Amino acid sequence: MTDNSMDMTAKPRNQWWDVWDQFKTHKGAVFGLGFLIFITLFCLIGPSLWNVDPGKLDIRNKDVRPIYMAIFDSGAKVSWARPMGTDNLGRDIMANIMQGGRISLAVGWTAMVLALLIGTTIGVLAGYFKRLDGILMRFTDLVLALPLLPLLLVMMLLFRDPLRATFGPEQGIFILIVTGIGITSWMQTARIVRGDVMAIKEREFVLAARSIGTPARRMITRHLLPNVLSPIMVSATLGLATAIITESALSFLGLGFPSDFPTWGKILFDSVDRMTAFPERVIWPGLAISLTVLAVNYIGDGLRDALDPSIRGL
Amino acid sequence: MLTFTLRRLLLSIPTLLFIAFVIFMLLELAPGDPMAQMPLTIPPEVKEKMRLALGLGEPWWVRFPLWLKQFFIVEPQYWFDSAFGTNFADGAQRIISFQSRSPVFDTIAQRLPQTLWVVGMSYIVGVLIALPIGIISAYKQYSVFDQTGTFVSMIGFSVPPFFSGVLLIVIFSVQLKWLPSIYDTTHVVNSWDTFMFQLKQMIMPVMVLALQTTAQVSRYMRASMLDNLGQDYVRTARAKGMTESVVVMKHVLRNSMIPVVTVIALGIPSIFGGAIITEQIFKVNGLGQLLIIALQGNDIPMVMTITFLLAVLIVMMNLIADILYGVLDPRIRYD
Fold first, then answer.
1. A249 vs B11: CB contact, 8 Å cut-off?
2. Quick one: which of A186, A232, A261, B196 has the fewest CB in 10 Å?
């Protein structure tokens, strides 16, 4: 009886606090979250603090090395006004990294959300409704069977000019890249979700729920979605990471944003020719991409463990 | 199972036809003109004749079936003829590249071995590294090995090939001068020294691609193992007094391999996509480089054929993955 009364007085606790407690124990995930917040703030607030126009040419101050080069080489051309150095046209690299990060991150988030929405919807529908399974999975197979990178490249060549004419140069390419990545990266999520839904559908608790007459809509939102949340979250982080990498890869192959709109991949691509003399110009944007993706992947790893009640508390 | 396989094989024919149609129509809509790089001094009527000579005069509903016929009937005939000395093709028109004016399949046959060597080797290396890392990481969750293994595979997953490749070149070719930065495809292996050179020039491209595979497969392996380690049957197996090695290597591993095998099969085509970038960096004159050159030059038959070959590969791998899923997991019944 005393146990019971204690339970009555204990405050109900939101399950997300449990998730957060478990998440906090994963050091990598906490560091990842910290870095993601840092890089987001760096790109969002940075330009208003660091008031340098990323596109401004300053030929006199071209090829400035980053500030730390003064330690190794006293004759190096460095300047406190250009802490990360400048490129071969005298554009400030730090301002470019900030501006590039804004675009890269925006592309990544939007494309990921788009891919996730499509993938989860198709996966759940195909896994739960036997009638839809055949046609939806056939469709997924069709899209999966398309060679995506070559088709993305073709799409970039094809729709670039019409979209640019309609929405303006930056907006048009943004829509093109986000849609391109979104509609070419939802299939893995759909397959994983469908597989999990099919496996969960055979479990006893679903049978029990069905036996008391739970309608399909409630079954999906109440019993299936919470149970496939962990693979969805993991594929969300994977999706964000892939979207950022795909955008950079397109820019690296010379088919992404136009040259006056820097993204991390674009800056990297432009610097490859001079990488033997100025390796830092390759390393800054490369590090930005890699660390952001690394942070996102660690968050996904932490989330995966935190969201799984059978692992939580171990 | 057999009927399922046969049904899927039959179903893959319309799938492939549909994909061929999608690719063809995408390229058909492309504004790029294969005549754009011709000198402006060529008179318009000559240009028109050149367009006709390239086969661009006909509408798409004539050219698409023609391409299908060339791809599925004429090209296999030529292949059969050259293999057995027969004459089935009888001089029929083959798929001709706009750029080189030579048969597309001849060029692909020249480029394929380089790509297969680099891609195949990197995939095998990647999977062989990934599986043990995934198993041990999951079994000893949150141990030092798990943290390091996760960290290394995370790095592999996070560092895109165009950065890791460039970084490797800066370190090992420019600074240390150990490895060549350009992959020499004319190199012939006929002695120990040439073999060592071949090995040296393969290390960097293979490692760049293998890093990606390792990262992906070991993450799936770890996640899958973790899912199974928490299941009741593992507790039952332990309660029966089975040794840990039997529990992990037999019960858990076999069940965990089901999704991983699928991922491995599905990953094969995507590594060809990764090879496009890697070949650009290391200047391997393989299929990926061929595709990029063809795209830039509006070489429509070449782009069409390479893209479609990739699609065939993907469809086959999907089929294999699904069959394996059914064979490995008795809970999943297709029939």
1. no
2. B196
